[in-house]
Amino acid sequence: MSKLSLALDTPELARHYEAVSVDRQFEAGKVLIERLAVRRGERVFDVGCGTGLLAEYVARIVGPPGHVLGIDPLPLRIEIAKRREASNLKFLVGDAYALNGHSESSFDVVYLNAVFHWLPEKLGPLRQFRRVLAPGGRLGLTTGLGDKLGTLQEVRKRVLAREPYSRYPESLAGGPQRVTLADLRGLFEQTGFALASLEVLPNDVVQPSAHAAIEFSQASSFGNFLGHLPSDLRRAARAEIESELEGFRIPEGIRLQGARILAVAEKAA
Q1: Most Cβ neighbours (<10 Å): which of 13, 17, 162, 262?
Q2: Residue 116 and residue 183: Cα distance in Å, rounded?
Q3: Is residue 39 pLDDT above 70, yes or no?
Q4: Which residue, among 36, 57, 63, 49, has the nearest Cα to 96 in the 3D structure?
Q5: Residue 138: exposed, middle, or buried by beta-carbon count in 10 A (0-12, 13-18, 19+)?
Q6: Long-range contacts: 223-227, Cβ < 8 Å, 24+?
Q7: Which residues of 72-109 are buried (b: 16+ CB within 10 A; e: fewer)?
Q8: What are 73-84's pLDDT values in tens digits?
Q9: What percentage of the chain has pLDDT greater than the value 90?
Q10: At how many degrees (to 10) do helices 181-190 and 123-132 cross?
């Protein structure tokens, strides 16, 4: 059984993500930053920053008195992000499971935008986020809703359940690990966070074509959309998914529906 791979990312996928995330992850991230009420002078930690679009936006909010650090385990995305570095904005290759190099109470805000579902084990990172937050600090995240798969994920799941693709099942770490609202409440409670707000927001989009929809998911999953399959079956599965997505065509393109969680929690002062 395959596991989530960071090695499937390519320069092309990284560049494509930089282009297509502007209208999706970046816009959703701005809503998260608004809910977190990020202020001038704050120290902010962007975990899973990708190519750094949102971190750059936050750096403008916190201004010269503040500081933003972005980390991501994908070196090709950090390579792009580093072009955005400024006196109050830095990027490093790193991940949520290796935060021991960051001292206790070193940030006022930690956020994960469209990242939390990529963490197979979540309690360890959450405990580390709490450790690096100052008393009264805020944690914010957006993530896919676990009990409502989006259109594309439903189609993908249906296709991959067929022969011969079903001979190559994904491991528990082989795809996004979404949570329900109840899951998230429990995770916050176990790690000592006080839940401040919890919302379910629509995550709908119209892609110009089925091909474009899959390319977006390929870039967002750093090559893991069908990465667990042998290359010949990958091509065949993609063709079947594209064909089924045509059933969701409207005049403007392929309509994809879904939902995401937006949560803000606090570390007690």
Answers
A1: 17
A2: 12
A3: yes
A4: 49
A5: buried
A6: 223/5, 223/8, 223/9, 223/10, 223/13, 224/4, 224/5, 224/8, 224/174, 224/175, 225/156, 226/156, 227/2, 227/5, 227/8
A7: bbbebbbebbbebbeebbbbeebbbeebeebeeebbbb
A8: 999 999 999 999
A9: 94
A10: 50
Q: What φ, ψ does residue 231 adopt, rounded to 5°?
A: -60, -40
Token reading at 211? 């091909």
The two tokens of residue 39 are: 């202020």
Q: Which two tokens stand for residue 137?
A: 């600090």
Tell me the per-residue pLDDT of 194-211, one tens digit each, with 9 for 90 and over. Answer: 999 999 999 999 999 999
CATH fold of 11-267 reads Rossmann fold (3.40.50)
Q: Amino acid identity of 233?
A: L
pLDDT digits (tens, 9 = 90+) for 129-163: 999 999 999 999 999 999 989 999 999 999 999 99
Question: CA–CA separation, 254 vs 240, rounded Å?
Answer: 15
